[in-house]
Design goal:
Layout (H helix, E strand, L loop, with lengths): L6 H13 E2 L2 E2 L11 E2 L5 E5 L2 E5 L16 E5 L3 E4 L5 H8 L18 H15 L4 E2 L3 H9 L15 H4 L31 E7 L22 E4 L16 E3 L8 E2 L3 E3 L1
Parallel strand pairs: 9-12
Antiparallel strand pairs: 1-2, 3-4, 4-7, 5-6, 7-13, 8-13, 9-10, 10-11
Amino acid sequence: MFERVSKRVFIAVIVMLLFCGVQGCTEPEKSADDSDYTNSIGIEFVKIPAGEFMMGSPSDEGGIANSGKPVHEVTIENSYYLGKYEVSQEQWKSVMGNNPSHFKGDDLPVEYVSWYDAQEFINKLNAMEGTDKYRLPSEAEWEYACRAGTTTRYFFGGDESKLGDYAWYCRNSDEMTHPVGQKKPNSWGLYGMSGNVLEWCQDEWYDNYDGAPSDGSAWEGGNSSRRVIRSGSWNAAPTVCHSAFRFRFAPYTRVHCIGFRLLRSL
């Protein structure tokens, strides 16, 4: 029977079976043929597959007030590239020509950058490469990539005692940042999603998810004077390092525990 089916159709069927079971599609999985990408200044990107997930923090996860609630379904319709690591100081300097960071080191994540600073970096990088594909991730895109198909408190499970294997946080950081990529990644190959530095997202801040977009886009257009941050950081407690944690700062804020990672559209 197979010899009557074109090679293209056969490959398509095989790909479909990799993602779908008899009862329907399951959580998306990254496969060996998912091509990653490295740009002109050495930023490595991981290809994140399209899919659906439950976004937010169940009641038993704690967090900041009700900001991570209600848990709601989000559909990420298009695949995208997300930075494998936080943007480093070397990468920042290659675009901006300066280094604002408190902790100095080329392979350390850049920090002491505001949301506005990150936007300036993105604009200059887009101009350098003649594209408009670089931007900050929405917090939905960020959480989806962080979870990597998981539903537990942390992307590695619910056991807080394992956090030090995956993140630099208050109990193991010696009160400083560390070179990117030193801890274990999540199952989609992303590093530092639970620690080292907090990360700016594109979204405005809203007190909870009532009325949040369900398509993975950034939540903007309101009258908020603050922007969302995600991830944990070198000075964060374990409750800040879980996958659904979110908080906010004014977009002009510069502190030594906030950096960012880039998204590149396909």
